[in-house]
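User: Can you predict the 3D structure for this chain?
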Amino acid sequence: MSHINVTINGRQYRMACEEGEEARLLRLAESFETRITSLRGKFGEIGDQRLTVMAALMVADELTDATTRIQAIEEELEALRDVRVIAAERAKATQTAVASALNSAAERIEKTTMALNRSIGGGIAIG
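Assistant: Here is the predicted structure, written as structure tokens:
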């Protein structure tokens, strides 16, 4: 477990995090501090707690929007996977039908060739 100091709303906080997560935690704190600074610029000094709550609500709102978008994308992805499975099944059925038609045509050609060879009398072989 590692400990770092972060600054949020002008105050230092000692935070614990997993080893290797220090930089991420610092970036998160800086992002949150930027939101608070932005709100302070818009609304002036309206109280530290209120600024912090407003910034937290902004983050929660963005998280909710992101979660909704992720769910929509996951649903779309699942639908696309279903379409892909159906398309693969159709392609396989088409491939089987084409192979069957080619085999049938080859058999007919072979029978026709044999019939022609018999009618010619075996002198000249066709095919």
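The beta strands are 2-8, 11-17. The mean pLDDT is 92.
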